């Protein structure tokens, strides 16, 4: 039997792979072998994996093939890469920390349990910065230019999806660890509404910011995992907003006649030429396709947000890394030692003020975002920096992480060196499905007309 699509199996999106499994054109084992061949060919350059066992992958693929068709889950056979701060019972979870080298707790995180029950093929563990909490990169390279970083802290997850080593990958975001690698690698990513997906069984950095999300090469694939994790909007399960002006149902939303906001945010001075150009081009394309685009500034009283965020991140990190500090601070990144030892000198009063200020800003920001089908914001300062030592700045992401809003990175633009630059779409809290539906239509335009195309 022949494949229903032309690409080699490793090139299939998750949605395409599912269609081939269901038609009988492809077995999970054939698919797994194709992915493993791709990884073997590319891993010496990209270095996206912290742990991968081909024997384990193939054994699981054969088991999945043996499941009767009427008992298969909604993700049957689809490969998912997992950031190495998320527990997997049959693989080590090492946090890229010397304190946890070869550590292998025999337990699955809640997210992994849900993926396994849905029939996913857990492919392996992807690289991260230390505890997903520093900007010091692992050895992973950007698949579009190995002299550049793939971003972080979800370094391996973003690179693996971009390089066709996995169609889906889990990542996490405390500052910009999902959206920044998505932009640098030219793929889609969803940072859902905060706490919409269980974080049980993953390393904690800042509970009030930490968010589990995922990467894909299409919006349809992002939606597959959104359904597995039971993301729901307030109106209904499929994103149909009825009379809601932000209705994002896929067969009803059109860019023609839609209303978009554009917000450069209070840190726009950090934008480089790639992001300046991407934001201008995004607004121009939306207008050309019949949308209204309205630029706005956030209220003046939010101007101190970056300082609020830094204060809270430091306070949360002080709690999260105290055990490792007491265990052996000489084997802990200096940045994390600084959290524990309060080098910023923040008081509890500072912490409370920052916490309350951010909490008070959330409903205000939600109300502003609710005026639009989606709001276009920067994903990154610019294209991926040269070198692997520094994974880039989260300056444009931390605002939306702290606001707890859903964010989708949409690829399609490029910087001065030909590297991908994305822009983000944001929406009010618990409007994840509508945002994905809007992102699908926007992504079709940006990828076709934005100017950046991946080269194989």
TrEMBL record:
Listed GO MF terms: transferase activity
Region (Disordered): 130-158
Pfam families, A to Z: Amidase
Record-annotated Amidase domain positions: 33-436
Keywords for this protein: Transferase
Biased composition (Polar residues): 130-144
Transferase keyword on record: yes
PANTHER family: GLUTAMYL-TRNA(GLN) AMIDOTRANSFERASE SUBUNIT A, MITOCHONDRIAL (PTHR11895:SF7), TRANSAMIDASE (PTHR11895)
Protein name, as recorded: Glutamyl-tRNA amidotransferase subunit A
């Amino acid at each position: 039997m022949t494949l229903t699509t032309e690409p080699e199996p490793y090139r299939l999106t998750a949605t395409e792979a599912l269609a081939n499994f269901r038609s009988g054109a492809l077995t999970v084992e054939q698919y797994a072998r194709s992915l493993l061949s791709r990884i073997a060919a590319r891993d010496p350059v990209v270095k996206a994996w912290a742990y991968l066992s081909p024997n384990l992958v193939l054994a699981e693929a054969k088991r999945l093939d043996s499941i009767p068709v009427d008992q298969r889950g909604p993700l049957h056979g689809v490969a998912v890469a997992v950031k190495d701060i998320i527990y997997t019972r049959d693989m080590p979870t090492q946090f890229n920390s010397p304190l946890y080298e070869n550590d292998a707790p025999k337990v699955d995180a809640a997210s992994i349990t849900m993926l396994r029950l849905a029939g996913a093929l857990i492919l392996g563990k992807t690289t991260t910065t230390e505890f997903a909490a520093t900007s010091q990169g692992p050895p992973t390279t950007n698949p579009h230019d190995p002299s550049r970083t793939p971003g972080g802290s979800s370094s391996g997850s973003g690179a693996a999806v971009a390089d066709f080593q996995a169609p889906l990958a889990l990542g996490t975001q405390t500052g910009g660890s999902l959206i920044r690698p998505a932009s640098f690698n030219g793929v889609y990513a969803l940072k859902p509404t905060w706490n919409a997906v269980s974080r049980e069984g993953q390393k904690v950095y800042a509970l009030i910011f930490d968010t589990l999300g995922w990467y894909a090469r299409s919006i349809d694939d992002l939606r597959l995992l959104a359904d597995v994790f039971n993301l729901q909007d307030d109106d209904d399960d499929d994103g149909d907003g009825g009379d809601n002006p932000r209705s994002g149902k896929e067969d009803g939303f059109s860019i023609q006649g839609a209303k978009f906001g554009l917000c450069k945010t209070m840190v726009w001075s950090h934008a480089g030429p790639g992001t300046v150009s991407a934001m201008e081009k995004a607004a121009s394309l939306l207008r050309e396709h019949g949308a209204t685009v309205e630029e706005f500034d956030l209220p003046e009283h939010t101007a101190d947000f970056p300082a609020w965020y830094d204060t809270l991140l430091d306070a949360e990190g002080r709690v999260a890394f105290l055990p490792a500090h007491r265990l052996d601070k000489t084997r802990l990144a200096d940045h994390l030692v600084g959290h524990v030892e309060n080098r910023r000198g923040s008081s509890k009063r500072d912490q409370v003020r920052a916490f309350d200020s951010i909490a008070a800003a959330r409903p205000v920001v939600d109300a502003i975002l609710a005026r639009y089908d989606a709001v276009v914001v920067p994903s990154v300062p610019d294209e991926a920096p040269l070198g692997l030592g520094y994974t880039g700045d989260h300056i444009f992401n931390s605002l939306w992480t702290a606001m707890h809003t859903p964010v989708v990175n949409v690829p399609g633009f490029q910087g001065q060196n030909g590297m991908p630059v994305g822009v983000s779409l944001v929406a009010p809290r618990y409007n994840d499905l509508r945002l994905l539906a809007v992102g699908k239509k926007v992504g079709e335009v940006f990828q076709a007309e934005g100017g950046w195309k991946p080269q194989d």
